[in-house]
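Our collaborator T.R. sent over the components below with a one-line note: 'Predict the complex.' Nothing else. No constraints on interfaces, no templates requested, no preferences about which chain binds where. So this is a plain run: every listed entity goes in together, and whatever single assembly comes back becomes the starting point for the next discussion.
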Amino acid sequence: EVQLVESGGGLVQPGGSLRLSCAASGFTFSSYSMNWVRQAPGKGLEWVSYISSSSSTIYYADSVKGRFTISRDNAKNSLYLQMNSLRDEDTAVYYCARVPRGSYFNFDYWGQGTLVTVSS
Amino acid sequence: DIQMTQSPSSLSASVGDRVTITCRASQGISNYLAWFQQKPGKAPKSLIYAASSLQSGVPSKFSGSGSGTDFTLTISSLQPEDFATYYCQQYNSYPPTFGGGTKVEIK
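Returned assembly:
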């Protein structure tokens, strides 16, 4: 069974940093590209970042470019999102999402999410 | 960026009703369209990809159609577990974008 479990969320002040993790199991993590998608409270879904299986290709949404860094450790079956210079508008539940082989943004499995709150 | 517009934004329906949700893309996306179901406090769940292909394990009461700019999600006979918010998403081009959601409520 595919499982994705996010962690690392919490309360952080504007301008602060946070590192999210996503632990994967139930599939060969190193063979799949991954994404982060977020959802502000009471709002819709917003794609954040993509990383290919080998980390050779990375994309970011304009809203986080230059502030967030996606990475992965295939030996640890883990995906990460380093978030710096956090803003109020980054407050959201952050989901990691897998994509099928050969796809970039067709999300088939999602984690349960981790809440990031940016507030003073 | 491609804009995805869903309608209606909400609807009230009864158990057993046939429900149709529409999604329109601001430019052609071929069939690179997915549908998700989200219940309160839960992660989105993939229902349909490639506009009309059912994800593994998703019941056949869900169906999708369309190509180009206009798409529909149909629930053939609404059940209590189907009351949720539904999102469409295009993955034809970067960045991927989602519709605003359609909340399906009990009448």
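Summary for T.R.: DSSP finds no helices and eleven strands in chain A.
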